[in-house]
Design brief:
Layout lengths: L2 E5 L3 E4 L4 E2 H7 L18 E6 L9 H10 L5 E3 L4 E2 L3 E6 L4 H11 L10 E12 L2 H6 L3 H21 L2 E7 L2 E6 L7 H27 L5 E15 L6 E5 L1 H16 L3 E4 H7 L4 E9 L6 E9 L7 H35 L1
Parallel strand pairs: 1-7, 11-13
Antiparallel strand pairs: 1-2, 3-6, 4-5, 4-7, 8-10, 8-11, 9-10, 11-12, 13-15, 14-15
Helix pairs in contact: 5-6
Length: about 350
């Protein structure tokens, strides 16, 4: 017989095959919110299926329409439209109090930026931090500190963005960037390529800082791939996408491990397995990670091969070069004729 286990109630009930979740909740005395009366005209009865999604019926047409409107993940279901058959389902009721209802109502009326519910994804997380920045900053005026950081963040932001990532959190002189939010297939490669290019970009930037402040910046970069919960965080007017989970903490620890082993870019074993055919690795080191038992292998990446240029792109470049050469020759010819005529008249 099917079972439903409710969170945060921590209560399990038996249900009949093909029983609708909302009806089973009300029959068992569970105060399951359903403002529209259970006709898929609101989203207040929605639940997060933690386990057992395979025992849930496919979305009905009204539920499918509402899910598209709100951009709901497959694990978010309407209790008034979902039947259970043949197994145990663990779910979490998402409307618990008046604040939840207000948030859901904002979504239905279009006043909310995006769904507030997080979803699990495998992504690549990159942490970067400037080495020894605090003593350097103490020797500068506050305006100079802001100037240096803005110049640095701007250059690093360009690198992150052109490799398909996004910086979602700044922490003093460090930041966290996420890769694979839309398409996780090449998240690891994008993150590692970004890390390598960040070091190259810093080498181009450092002569400028040396001229102004007689100081070169050094950074440490840590990258890890893993499952996280991605969601929107903050007040509705200023929400930002963020990632929460052990994989995030691990990436942060990897970045800090650069200090121990004297490296600039370290990646985890999971990341290495994704990019081992591409990444140029100098060495593998075993490092103890704070908060975890044992030692973990980390790989120092020193390079990545350039991205292949598409044949179509080459043809476009060749065509543009031909036209550019032709235009330049015509301009040179017209200038010569003009000079010849002027010389005759003079």
């Amino acid at each position: 017989m099917p079972h439903i286990h409710y969170l945060p109630d921590d209560r399990t009930i038996e249900v009949d095959d093909d029983d609708i979740i909302l009806e089973a909740s009300l029959r068992a005395g569970i105060s399951h919110t359903h403002i529209c009366g259970g006709s898929a005209r609101c989203s207040t009865c929605r639940v997060l299926i933690v386990e057992g999604l395979e025992f849930c019926s496919p979305r009905t047409s009204p539920e499918e329409e509402l899910a598209k409107k709100l951009g709901l993940e497959p694990e978010i279901r309407l209790a008034c439209q979902t039947q259970i058959a043949g197994g145990k389902v663990i779910l979490r009721r998402l409307a618990i109090d008046s604040e939840d209802l207000e948030s859901f109502n904002d979504q239905m009326t279009g006043n909310s930026i995006s769904p507030p519910i997080g979803h699990e994804k495998k992504i690549a997380i990159l942490f970067a931090d400037i080495r020894g920045f605090t003593p350097f900053a103490e020797s500068l005026l506050p305006y100079d500190v802001i100037y240096v950081l803005n110049r640095y963040f701007q250059k690093m932001g360009y690198v992150i963005n052109r490799n398909g990532g996004m910086i979602n959190n700044y922490m003093g002189d460090g930041f966290m960037a996420l890769f694979g939010l839309e398409n996780p297939d090449k998240a690891a490669e994008q993150a590692v390529r970004a890390g390598v290019e960040m070091l190259e970009e810093l080498e181009k930037l450092n002569p400028y800082f040396e001229t102004l402040y007689r100081h070169r910046l050094r950074i440490g970069i840590g990258i890890h791939c893993g499952l996280v919960v991605v969601g929107n965080l903050g007040a509705s007017e200023s929400q930002t996408v963020t990632a929460i989970g052990d994989a995030v903490n691990f990436a942060s620890r990897i970045e800090a491990a650069n200090k121990k082993v004297g490296t600039s870019l370290l990646i985890s074993e999971e990341t290495y397995q994704e990019v081992k055919e591409l990444a140029i690795v100098d060495r593998c080191v075993s490092v103890e990670i704070p908060g975890k038992s044992g030692e973990y292998p980390l790989y120092e990446v020193v390079g990545m091969p350039p991205l292949p240029v598409e044949i179509e792109d080459i043809s476009k470049v060749e065509k543009s070069s031909i036209w550019k050469n032709l235009v330049n020759k015509l301009l040179a010819l017209s200038a010569a004729v003009y000079n010849w005529i002027r010389k005759i008249w003079s």
